[in-house]
């Protein structure tokens, strides 16, 4: 389409200069303005097409690079996870444990009261097991209701 306008322009210019003196035709100013507008439109269309194509290619390569980066990230994420897991496991496993800042203990008088109860350790064990069974049965009943 663009080349059609340029060839039309060339044909009009050669027609103006190919007329002989006996066939001399007077061309008005509007004729040359129309030809100038046609040439400007054709050249503008050429540059518009070039820049549009360049923009499309740039966007395509940008999108392709972004998608390739996402694909490589997804393919490499298991290796990164395993590496971080092993690194943290070794760093935590071979480090000295932190001592707690606060320790929650009972006073000696409170411990003396509980130590005076006969079979206190046995009773606390039985109470702990009973509480665990009670919570387990409650959870089981809750799940069987649904």
Number of helices: 4
C-alpha geometry? rod-shaped
What are the secondary-structure elements, in order, as H or E?
A: HHHH
Distance between the termini: 73 Å
Structural class: mainly alpha
Largest sheet: none
Q: Quickly count the domains.
A: 2
Mean pLDDT, as a whole number?
A: 83
In short:
The protein has helices at residues 2-18, 29-93, 108-116, 120-145.
Describe, in plain words, how this protein is organized in 3D:
This protein is an all-alpha fold and 146 residues long. It folds into two domains: 103 residues, no CATH class; 37 residues. Helix content is 80%, strand content 0%. It is built from four helices and no strands. Helix 1 runs antiparallel to helix 2. It starts with a helix and ends with a helix.
Which labels suit this protein?
146 residues; mainly alpha; 2 domains; 4 helices; rod-shaped
Secondary structure elements and pairings:
Blueprint: H1 2-18, H2 29-93, H3 108-116, H4 120-145
């Amino acid at each position: 389409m663009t080349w059609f306008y340029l060839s039309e322009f060339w044909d009009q210019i050669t027609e103006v200069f190919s007329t002989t003196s006996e066939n001399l035709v007077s061309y008005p100013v509007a004729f040359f303005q129309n030809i100038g507008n046609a040439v400007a439109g054709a050249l503008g269309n050429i540059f518009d097409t070039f820049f549009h194509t360049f923009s499309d290619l740039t966007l395509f390569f940008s999108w392709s690079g972004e998608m390739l980066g996402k694909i490589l990230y997804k393919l490499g994420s298991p290796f990164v996870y395993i590496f971080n897991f092993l690194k943290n496991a070794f760093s935590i496993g071979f480090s000295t444990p932190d001592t707690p800042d606060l320790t929650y203990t009972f006073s000696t008088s409170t411990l003396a009261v509980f130590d005076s109860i006969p079979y206190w350790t046995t009773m606390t064990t039985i109470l702990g097991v009973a509480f665990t069974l009670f919570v387990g049965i409650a959870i089981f009943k809750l799940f069987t209701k649904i």
